[in-house]
Amino acid sequence: MHESVEPDRILALDAHLERAEPGPATVRASNATTKGLIARDARIPAGRRLRRMTEITIVDVTDAAGFGLIPPCADPGFDHRSCDYWEDADRGSKAARLSWLEPSSGAGSDAAPAKARPANPFLADLEAREPVANPFAGARPANPFLTPGEEDAGPIDNPFAPRPAARPTVGSDAPRKLQLLGRGLGVAGSYAKVLLRDDVAAAYAQFGPLTAYPRAQRTRDLYPALPDAPLPAVITCIATTAAARGAGLALALVAAVCDDLASRGFTAVETYPTRGALPDATSAATPAFWLSAGFALAIDDERFPVMRRELV
After folding, report:
1. 143: CB partners within 8 A, 6+ apart
2. Vertex 67, ends 62 and 68: CA angle to 5°?
3. How far apart are CA 51 and CA 49, in angstroms?
4. Given 44, 187, 205, 212, which is the most exposed site by the fewest CB atoms within 10 A?
5. Does the domain formed by 53-100+168-310 have CATH 3.40.630.30?
6. pLDDT per position in the chain (312 positions), as tens?
7. Nearest to 226, CA basis, from 275, 268, 185
8. What's this model's pTM, rounded to 2 decimal places?
9. Where do the domains of the chain lie?
């Protein structure tokens, strides 16, 4: 799903300004954004005009096309497309793994043949015997409600009953990470979004219900003071490309994620940054970033604080 951000939410000043008819004064403009995003004033010299406005589009990662838009990590040693750090609490990794980008192998003709079961020398005599008929096993009993000549072909289609809605799914041959992101499509919705600036991927966010991320659950279990009902949604990853930093795009994406989670019925969202981590080595940003995004410090731990934002 593509969500275009309204032009009045982000006003970006193009670096290449074109000359127009001279004007009597200097025009003052701002790229102020909504929901507490970073605002930066700029002065446009008199006699110049904006060449164009930056277009911001937010895409839900629900299929191969959306998965292909996920931007690279700032540190090439990591890869959003092969990270299962939050999904696997014991062996999860953030490392770039090229094998994860290949389609998963299904149970087709290329599947390895099953190993033959080793022979049991103590059952040789029994296996050589002919199968014995079971006098207690009878045929399936006939349906007494069928009319003569009618066959029992299973449940009859009811034209008056509403048909179940088809739920979106990700194929079993999809890359492993896409399968992880697609687990909740039929219930909770997408688990990731990509922000495009002028059709170029600039920011990425991963989120969803707490139950989808065992490592987040394990971190949260360390703090019994946190409210346990209703369970919050979580944002496990927020990142921008190196070229897109400093433009408030990550804040814009977080705002969109929070709006989406609120529309799904979540009343709060949490995130679990790591204090002291290098900017390119953490997937959950910093406490200062989350404070600027409207989150509050719920647990002030020296290494693993908990940031929380109420959505109602």
Report:
1. 152
2. 145
3. 6
4. 187
5. yes
6. 665 554 344 433 333 323 333 333 322 232 333 333 333 333 434 444 445 678 999 999 999 999 999 998 888 889 999 999 999 999 999 999 988 988 866 544 344 455 555 566 666 665 666 677 777 776 666 677 766 666 666 666 778 888 767 777 888 889 999 999 998 888 889 999 999 999 999 999 999 999 999 999 999 999 999 998 899 999 999 999 988 988 999 999 999 999 999 999 999 999 999 888 777 778 889 999 999 999 999 999 988 899 999 998
7. 268
8. 0.67
9. 53-100+168-310
Residue whose structure tokens are 């540190």? 75
Q: How far apart are CA 135 and CA 283, in angstroms?
A: 65
Q: What is the CA 85 to chain-centroid distance, rounded?
A: 13
Q: Tokens standing for 269?
A: 């969202």
Which residue is it, tokens 């009902």? 229
Q: What is the maximal distance between C-alpha atoms in the chain?
A: 106
Strand partners, 204: 194, 239
Buried b (16+ CB within 10 A) or exposed e, 87-101: beeeeeebebeeebb
Non-local (6+) Cβ contacts of 75 within 8 A are 280, 281
- In the DSSP assignment, the letter for residue 164 is P
For the chain, state the CA radius of gyration. 28
